[in-house]
Specification:
With 330 residues, the protein is an alpha/beta fold. It folds into two domains: 5-123 and 142-204, Spore Coat Polysaccharide Biosynthesis Protein SpsA, Chain A (Alpha-Beta Complex), CATH 3.90.550; 245-329, no CATH class. The chain has twelve helices and nine strands. It has helices spanning 18-26, 47-52, 70-80, 99-105, 127-141, 160-166, 177-187, 208-228, 241-244, 246-265, 273-299, 307-329; strands at residues 5-11, 34-41, 60-65, 85-89, 93-95, 112-120, 147-148, 155-159, 191-202. α1 (18-26) links the parallel β1 and β2 (34-41). The longest helix is centred in the C-terminal third of the chain and has 27 residues, at 273-299.
Length: 330
């Protein structure tokens, strides 16, 4: 039986993709009632104008609010959703036609609280966007089980009664609110499902500055998560221990590197810090190149071999987020 569905799209400065995102939802091969709720979060571009031009396509509601962030925008959309299955779809995610049908099949099990699909990397994106997409694909490819410990809000459906029990997204999080919700749903007794054949195209931001800014706040959110959910210090099904260890290893590299420079300045006779620093760097790069070769094997493009160097930049930003977060606790 197909269940009626509400789809919430938080919107902020997404004029490039929002028409395709909305059209893809309306074009779902899905026989049950469907409503779309677009929450414009103070966009400064033509996003709102574009969405208003699509109102004749179907049951489309528009909430226009001052900029308050993705968490509040998503919560406000969830609050007015009228159906028992509520999907959250990002404004840069284009669903394939059978996404909704495959996702909702999992709700036949009353113990399932949320279901996520699979992010694909589109072909018509920039070099940098492909690298980011391949990175995420590889992480999801590593998930062997149907049942997971984390679902991401970008292409996920939630059971409304589960949200009533667990609560809406925590506005204390700028990033990591989807992890927090996932953990709370499981504590409330619900299962989370990863449906690998429910596909969507994810159009990543194509500039390195935007990527590193996103990674900074993602790492900062991870610190908040560990503070709230201490049992998740080793990560979850999407961000596991291998990824979590990137931060202490990179911090160790910088500590050893700075120590070696200080010892050189003071002409200390025995200085093994530089050798130790580059040994740690070698361990990081070895792990990242192993990861990159797994991406190369699937994607068949040598773009993958640049991932270790992007990850070094990412790791540095993660370390800075850790330092800033730690300083606030002092």
């Amino acid at each position: 039986m197909y269940l009626p569905v509400s789809v919430v799209v938080p919107l902020y400065n997404a004029e490039r993709h929002i028409k395709d995102v909305t059209e893809a939802i309306f074009s779902q091969d899905y026989p049950a009632p469907l409503e779309i709720i677009v929450v414009n979060d103070g966009s400064r571009d033509r996003s709102l104008e574009i969405v208003k031009g699509l109102k004749d396509r179907g049951d489309l509601k528009i909430i226009d609010q001052p900029n308050q962030g993705a968490v509040t925008a998503t919560n406000n959309g969830f609050k007015v959703a009228k159906y028992d299955i509520i999907c959250s779809v990002d404004s840069d995610v284009v669903l394939q036609k059978d996404w909704l049908r495959k996702i909702t099949e999992e709700f036949d099990d009353p113990a399932v609280g949320a279901v996520q699909g699979y992010y694909k990397t589109p072909h018509d994106v920039s070099f940098l966007a492909k690298m980011m997409g391949y990175d995420v694909e590889a992480r999801y490819d590593g998930i062997a089980s149907k049942y997971v410990t984390h679902v991401c809000t970008g292409n996920t459906a939630y059971r409304k009664s589960a949200l009533d029990k667990a609560g809406l997204f925590d506005p204390a999080f700028k990033y990591g609110y989807d992890n927090d919700m996932s953990y709370r749903l499981q504590k409330a007794g619900y299962k989370l499902v990863f449906r690998k054949d429910a596909l969507c195209d994810h159009y990543w931001k194509a500039d390195i500055k935007g990527y590193l800014k996103q990674q900074y706040w993602s790492a900062y959110g991870r610190m908040q998560l560990v503070q709230k959910h201490k049992e998740k210090i080793a990560g979850d099904s999407v961000s596991g221990l291998r990824m979590i260890l990137q931060v202490p290893l990179t911090l160790l590299f910088f500590i050893l590197l700075i120590s070696s420079i200080v010892l050189v300045i003071f002409r200390f006779p025995y200085n093994y810090s530089l050798l130790s620093a580059f040994t740690v760097l070698g361990i990081i790069l070895l792990d990242r190149f192993i990861f990159a070769f797994s991406v190369l094997e699937k994607q068949k493009t040598f773009i993958a071999l640049l991932l270790p160097f992007i990850h070094l930049l990412r790791n540095t930003v993660w370390c800075w987020a850790f330092i800033r977060w730690s300083a606030k606790l002092l």
